[in-house]
Amino acid sequence: MTVGLWSNQDPLILKCHPLTAWCVTVFSIWMSVEDHIGYDLPWSLNHLVPFGLLGGAPAHDMHHQKPNSNYAPFFSHWDRLFGTAVALEKKTLKVL
Predict the structure, then answer these.
(1) Segment (H or E) for 10
(2) For the chain, how big is the Rg over CA atoms in Å?
(3) What is the model's pTM?
(4) 91: pLDDT strictly greater than 70
(5) Is 30 a residue whose pLDDT tops 80?
(6) pLDDT score, position 54
(7) Are 86 and 62 within 8 A, CB to CB?
C-alpha cells in the first residue's frame, strides 16, 4: 500500500509535469507486475540494471518466504545496507 501511495504522491508533491507523473506511475506498475509475476525472465529489469540495484521476482519471492527480509521493491541496496537482504536460493530442475 505504501509503495502505491508514494509512487503516486511523489510526483504530485514535487509538482512534476503530468507526463513525468505518468511515467513514474507506469514504471511503478511495471516493476510491481515484474516482481509479482513469479518468473525470472532474462529481459526483466533486474537483469538489465547494473550492480543488483533491482531485486526483481527472485528477491520478492524470497521476501514472501522470509517476510523480515528483502523489503525494497526497487533499490535493493537499502536491504544490504540495513542488513535485511537475504541471499537468493537458486532452484535447478533435475532431469529424470
Answers:
(1) helix 2-13
(2) 15
(3) 0.62
(4) no
(5) yes
(6) 78
(7) yes
If we measure between CA atoms, which residue out of 58, 14, 5 comes closest to residue 70?
A: 58
- Give yes or no for a contact between 4 and 29, defined as CB atoms under 8 angstroms apart: no
**pLDDT for 81:** 87
Cβ-proximal residues to 34 (8 Å cutoff; 6+ apart), any chain: 44, 45, 46, 56, 57
In order of 61, 91, the CA distances from 94 in angstroms are 21, 10
How many whole angstroms separate alpha carbon 44 and alpha carbon 63?
18
Closest CA to 76 of 95, 91, 57: 57
According to the model, what pLDDT value does residue 85 have? 84
Helices 18-36 and 56-65, interaxial angle, to 10°? 60
Q: Which three cell numbers stand for residue 87?
A: 541471499
